[in-house]
Amino acid sequence: MVRAELTTEIPTLTDLQETDVSPFDGVYLGHPYCRLYRDNLIANPSHLETAVKHLKDRGLKAYVSTDAAPTTEALPLVRDLLQWCLDLEVDGVEVQNLGVLRMVHHGFPGLAVVAGGFINLYTLEGARTLSQYGVRLIRPAYELNLEEIDLIRDETGLDVELLVHGKIPLGITDRCLLLDYQEESSLPCPDICREEFWLKRDSWAIRHIGTVIMSGKDMCMLEHLPDLVRRGYRRFRTGTLITPPPRRAEIGRVYRKALECAADPLKFSRKSLMKHLEGLGSNGLCNGYYFGTSGHVYVDYRGQETGGLRSEL
Amino acid sequence: MPLIMAPGGSKAAVIAAIDNGGDGFYLGGRGWSRWGRITELSEDEVAECIAMGRRLGKEVQVVFNRVPAHGENADFLQAVESCCRQGASEVILNDLGTISLVRRHLPAVQVGTSIGCALKNLEDAKFYADLGVSTLVLPWKMGPGEIRALKEYAPGLRLEMFLYVEAPHVVLGNCWLGSYVHQKQAPGRSGTVRLSGSARRGGNCSQPCTSSWEFSAPGIPGTPGGVLTGGPLPHRRLVALASLQAMTLAGVDLLKIQGRNLDSEKIGKLVRTLKDFVTSTHKRYGAESPAGWDRTGWDPVRIENLMELLPQLEFV
Fold first, then answer.
1. Which contiguous run of DSSP H or E holds residue A105?
2. Distance (Å, rounded) from C-alpha B263 to C-alpha B265?
């Protein structure tokens, strides 16, 4: 059996308490795209403390997501968050902004840093620069394909975490679009973003949540897990920030089961695992950019492009 | 008075910018910038424009806003070095790794950041200052307080703000919507792969944000099908005239006019009109004056001219 780390994302304490976290090895706590999100763990020190304890009691790692795009005015709040993380002895902080990385490097060198997707790591030279700032675990830019990620990992020795399932963050906005619809929907901020908002065009669909735009389809690398394991990857993340707790846990169980047999092609029951995922309902699947295609495309285990469950196109 | 940097999407645009009072211009060489033949200049044109700029004492920035693929660093560094040898004042780069690469291999080259670096706060700006860049382009939302703090942190650092900019809904440099919709691999230089569809990686963004989208929330009652509205995502055209004096007094060194896609006639008019605004402000109050400057002091004819050139402008 391959020893691998499977992580998930959980924005609030209630969400954490309602999620069966047993399939996971670690959890990224907090909603990095909007501090106003109700009960956001990164804005609530007592909830964060309880959440970290909840995970540690279960032998799980506690990572904390920091603000993905903080303004200068928000930096003191980020500094507070970093101090809480240090005090709570979390296993790492996810940093998606170079300014926040600089703050950690100079003010909180004891914190382990995971460089997130919005930090825009595209090149080997970029990875070397990040490592000079103490980064040891990276999530490369979403647009990179697997060969490029292999190269960065092999040349720098940095550990890599791959997004294997869930929504792909596609962009950060200056301002939350939902704020314009508070009156129309009779839902003020922060209640409004508990609703599902979609941007749709023809057969396309993308999600708008706070200041982030996410893919409508779910990234899915389930049937490619044996290949990822063969390539030497051991850290896998499910992007389930906005996924309801039961579904988040179920996705975790499917991937845990897959990881248990990923090293043995004879035992890897691709069909039944994929069927299980289909049962969870989806707006379609894609592989993001791992195979050099457009992000919305799904490439199956044979290397053929397909719609991936119910296609947007 | 801050220098006005005009867009040079063609040789004709560069000439129009200079003729109309631009203090400098920025341009991109073919294969290393953006929008291919629409805004990129051939090697010969780049050389001619750099020579013209030098002859007339103008600032010349050469934009390399394509991240070199693996195996392409030598070609990239050669192209950067060549532009600077010809007399370019600075290269503009949009990637952490690329900036580090140039700083390490060509330490004498002056490096400016592109808006694609997606700076969001003062600490971001300090990060790039620490990397040794000579010029930082600031996002339009940054204010005079941040500029003063940066000047205090790195007195030699030049700060550039947008005098005119188009601000899409998704922050430039943090958007993969285009490549999510469309991306293809094609052979690039030196046996490398070029990715059409990715604005950072040798392609052009398909700009899905400018298409019409239906915004819906199926769970909200009282709206047919949950549809709330339709149309393109918010896209703003901003002219920073209201904040100009405060930003200038705080220490802005360069004023950038976006628009390498604009034709030379429009660029000439835009540069002339904005130059007149900046000059009249400077004359009226001087760089040291703390006096306020608001829209009541703006010449209505100039406002009208601007609105004619660029409909739906917002003054910030």
1. helix A98-107
2. 6
- Strand, coil or helix: what is A81? helix
What Cα–Cα distance (Å) separates residue B131 from each residue in A132, A142, B111, B289?
11, 24, 10, 34
Neighbours of B145 (CB within 10 A): 13
Q: Is A23:A6 a contact under the CB 8 Å cutoff?
A: yes
Q: Give the closest residue to A226 by CA, choosing from A185, A189, A270.
A: A270
CA distance B254 to B260: 17
Average pLDDT over residues A253-275: 91
**Per-residue pLDDT, B292:** 46
Percentage helix, strand, coil for chain A under 3-state DSSP, each rounded to 5: 40, 20, 40
CA–CA separation, A47 and A65 (whole Å): 14
Q: Is B283 exposed, middle or buried (0-12, 13-18, 19+ CB in 10 A)?
A: exposed
The interface residues of chain B toward chain A in range 101-130, judged by CB-CB distance below 8 A, are 101, 104, 118-128, 130
Distances (CA, A) of A16 to A48, A169, A257, B296: 11, 21, 21, 55
Quick check: A81 pLDDT over 90?
yes
Rg (CA), chain B: 20
Between residues 181 and 240 of chain B, which touch chain A (CB distance below 8 Å)? 181-185, 193, 195, 197-198, 200-201, 208, 211-220, 223, 228-229, 233-234
The per-residue pLDDT for range A184-240, each reduced to its tens digit, is: 888 899 988 888 888 888 878 888 888 999 999 999 999 999 999 999 999 999 999
| Tokens linked to A159 | 């550990």
pLDDT at B168: 87
Quick one: A164 exposed, middle or buried, by C-beta within 10 A (0-12, 13-18, 19+)?
buried
Token code pair at residue B119: 């700076």
Which has the higher per-residue pLDDT, A56 or B192?
A56
- Tell me the residues of chain A between 14 and 53 that have a Cβ less than 8 Å away from chain B: none
Per-residue model confidence (pLDDT) at position A34: 94
Strands of chain B, DSSP E: 3-7, 24-29, 40-41, 59-64, 90-93, 111-113, 135-137, 158-168, 170-175, 184-187, 193-196, 213-216, 227-231, 235-239, 254-257, 313-315
User: Which is more confident, A309 or A241?
Assistant: A241
Main-chain phi, psi angles of A197, to 5 degrees: -110, 135
In this model, does residue B179 exceed pLDDT 70? yes
Using left for φ > 0, alpha for ψ between -120 and 50, and beta otherwise, residue A134 falls in left
Query: Quick one: CA torsion of A79, A83, A86, A91, rounded to 10 degrees?
Result: -50
> Identity (one letter) of the amino acid at A235?
R
Which residue type occupies A215? S
A40 vs B215: which has the higher pLDDT: A40
Interface test with A, best of B101, B174, B238 (most A CBs within 10 A): B174
Instruction: Report yes or no: A100 at the B interface, CB cutoff 8 Å.
Output: yes
- The answer to whether residue A294 scores a pLDDT higher than 60 is yes
Q: Full-prediction pTM beyond 0.90?
A: yes
pLDDT for residue A312: 39
Count interface pairs A-B at CB distance under 8 A: 192
Question: B249 pLDDT exceeds 50?
Answer: yes
**Beta strand A61-65 pairing with A92-95:** parallel
Mean pLDDT of B133-158: 95
Mean pLDDT value across chain A: 93
Contact check, Cβ <8 Å, B175/A127 = no
